[in-house]
Amino acid sequence: MSAASALPYGPHTAAVRGFLVRLAGLGAADRAAVVSRYETVATTRAYEAADALLGDVITRSGREEARDALSGPLMQLVKRPAPAMATTTATDAATDTPTEFELEPIAEPALAALLALMVRELLDDATLRLLTDAFSDTIPLASL
Fold first, then answer.
1. Which residues are within 8 A (CB) of 20 and not within 5 positions of it... i.e. 6 or more apart?
2. What CA–CA distances, in Å, run from 16 to 74, 81, 94?
3. What's this model's pTM, rounded to 2 decimal places?
4. Closest CA to 84 of 72, 95, 98, 71
5. Residue 37 · residue 140 · CB < 8 Å
6. What would the pLDDT profile of 60-75 be if each residue is shown by its tens digit?
């Protein structure tokens, strides 16, 4: 097994995997609390700056492949069948038929937190806290 496949999410693979496991176990009330916290912070200038910095750090650190590797596991946790008027369509690999789905509201805060965890040693504490704050009561950084 190569080092790259052993650490698909970079040096913080264990923390990222731990976050994904904990995310999978969140109940409806915890998910709603995360979304509510995220909606409060995500529209601030400070958050927008942190989000832009996060993208820059991922690019400068060469961790685009690790970023992309997160999409599969995260999608498994946050997609659900869409109502009849869905806007996103994928193809079911097993049947080659279109499958309509939508992302749960927790998808965006989860992606931000996962990406921040992935490059956590390259972010200052304030930026890391801001990007993961929506999960501070449900999946605290110190627990990862």
1. 73, 74, 77, 114
2. 11, 25, 28
3. 0.83
4. 98
5. no
6. 999 999 999 999 999 9
Q: Output the CA–CA distances (angstroms, integers) from residue 113 to 3, 54, 87, 104, 117, in the order listed.
A: 24, 10, 25, 15, 6
Better-predicted residue by pLDDT, 144 or 88: 144
What tens digit of pLDDT does each residue of 66-109 get? 999 999 999 999 988 777 654 555 555 555 555 688 999 999 99
For 132, counting Cβ atoms within 10 Å of its Cβ (0-12 exposed, 13-18 middle, 19+ buried), the class is buried
Tokens (6 digits) for 3: 């080092």
Residue 12, CA distances (Å) to 26, 96, 117, 139 in order: 21, 35, 7, 16
Residue 45, judged by CB atoms within 10 A of its CB (0-12, 13-18, 19+), counts as exposed
